[in-house]
Design brief:
The protein is α/β, with parallel strands linked by helices. About 20% of the residues lie in helices and about 25% in strands. It has two domains: about 5-285, no CATH class; about 295-390, Beta Barrel (Barwin-like endoglucanases). The chain contains nine helices and 17 strands.
Length: about 400
């Protein structure tokens, strides 16, 4: 990871504005999930500022943004943010393949995300030795992440993702860079149905990609790639993807930090495809109830399946619920709304977040329960994944005055 590069570039350009275009209108909001893993106390705030540039680019264009930032970028919080996302952005440590650490890399820890680990203590500490940082690799992501169909993966300022080596190591040649980009993009493209993979080390490069795709969703991914202000046509090499038949791997070698030539930028997938052709209206976050959402206007009860998530920032360890936007989910406030949720038992729960919950699809959920809420409502083990529930939307429930069960 070029941490020194990121810090130096950030300090040199922090007064510059993003220069975003006017928001594009959209009838259905796209969900953008942004992950910031821990990279130390000094640099994590820089990464968060880069993440917020992407968040601003998305939100000013009508997208919904789900944030999972260190020190709250636990595996559970990250999976909750990624669920149903059309674009996923990751900033943080990375370990790709090939690398100088192991001749036989472990797919459980490579080509993935570095998150706050089981030894995290509420800081941006990033040591894998004490567990404050944990690497969740391609096999873990493929097994657990549930983004939307046709989603786009963007790696920003993560080691190996665009093909380059770490600063101490031998500079990557074309073959090594291509192998790294192919390895990093394999799970998103082949296992999780991503339509495109981008990796950039350029300052606010992810924000530019998001802005371009949302402003021009019909623009082919190859042209999105070439729209980067630091793109040089002579620096591009197009190769067949090393692991996925029919896909391409694009390497971009150009001068950047202190004029150093390296692989700062990459793409994988089908360059002729686009956001509009891969993320159809039916795959975007729905803005109406959808065919499978059962809402009885007479009694104000929504019936269906509930999934689970770890916790929401500010509500750690508490019994809470996230709902689809169409039935009241949203950004939590100082005084969240309350609903009565019933499974084996009933409880009044604060609505502290929204969830895409696969609304309008055969996999639709009507609620996402925190682990504490799941235990409050049901004796079923979390590994079951789903439980049937009733969500009583009216009257508004509070701890002091819950509605009748």
């Amino acid at each position: 990871m070029r941490l020194v590069l990121v810090l130096a570039t950030a300090l040199a350009t922090f007064v510059a504005s993003l220069g975003l275009a006017a928001p594009a209108s959209a009838s259905t909001p796209i969900k953008v999930a942004i992950i910031v893993g821990p990279v130390g106390e000094e640099l994590t705030p820089v990464y968060i500022s880069l993440a917020e540039a992407s968040a601003t680019a998305a939100e000013t264009r009508g997208a919904m943004v789900a944030r999972a930032y260190s020190p709250n970028a636990s595996a559970e919080n990250v999976l909750a943010a990624v669920e149903g996302a059309n674009i996923v952005i990751y900033l943080g440590h990375g370990v790709g393949t090939p690398n100088p650490y192991s001749a036989n890399p472990n797919v459980a820890t490579t080509n993935g995300w570095g998150l706050n680990g089981p030894g995290a203590v509420g800081t941006h500490a990033d040591s894998w030795q004490d567990g404050s940082l944990a690497y969740y690799g391609e096999s873990w992501i493929a097994e657990h992440a549930k983004p939307a169909p046709g989603w786009v993966m963007i790696y920003s300022n993560a080691c190996y993702a665009p093909g380059a080596s770490e600063g101490f190591d031998t500079a990557a040649d074309e073959a090594v860079a291509a192998a790294r980009v192919s390895a990093y993009s394999r799970a998103p493209l082949a296992e999780l149905g991503a339509s495109a993979y981008f990796a950039t080390d350029f300052y606010e490069g992810a924000a530019h990609l998001v802005a371009t795709m949302l402003d021009q969703p019909e623009l082919p991914f190859g042209e999105v790639f070439a729209s980067e202000p630091r793109y040089l046509a002579e620096g591009l090499t197009r190769l067949p993807h090393g692991l996925i038949e029919g896909a391409e791997t694009w390497l971009h070698r150009s001068p950047y930090f202190e004029g150093k030539l390296d692989y700062w930028y990459a793409f994988a997938g089908n360059p002729a495809s686009s956001l509009s052709t891969t993320v159809t209206a039916g795959e975007l976050l729905a803005t109406d109830a959808g065919p499978d959402l059962t809402l009885d206007p007479a009694d104000g009860i929504v019936r269906g399946m509930a999934s689970s998530y770890g916790e929401s920032a500010g509500w750690e360890g508490q019994a809470t619920v996230a709902l689809p936007v169409v039935i009241g989910g949203g950004i939590p406030t100082a005084e969240p709304s309350w609903v009565l949720v019933c499974a084996d038992r009933c409880a009044s729960l604060p609505v502290v977040d929204s969830c895409p919950c696969y609304v309008g699809t055969a996999d639709q959920r009507v609620a996402n329960l925190s682990h504490a809420a799941w235990a409050l409502l049901s004796d079923a083990p979390l590994v079951e994944g789903l439980i049937p529930v009733e969500v009583h939307l009216t009257p508004v429930a509070t701890p002091e005055q819950p509605p009748d069960a």
